[in-house]
Amino acid sequence: MRIFLTGATGFIGSAIIPELLAAGHQVLGLTRSEKGARALRDAGAEPHLGNLEDLESLRSGAARADGVIHTAFDHDFSNFVANCEKDRLAIEALGSSLKGSDRPLIITSGTGAGSTAPGLPATEDVFNAEYPNPRIASELAGAALLEAGVNVSVVRLPQVHDTVKQGLVTYLVDLARRKGVSAYVGDGSHRWSAAPVRDVARLYRLALERRAAGARYHAVAEEGVPTRAIAEALGRGLNVPVASVPPEEAGGHFEWLGAFAGMDMSASSAWTRAQLGWYPTGPGLIADLEAMRHHEVAH
Question: Residues with Cβ < 8 Å from 45, sequence gap 6 or more?
Answer without folding.
Answer: 5, 8, 17, 21, 26, 27, 28, 29
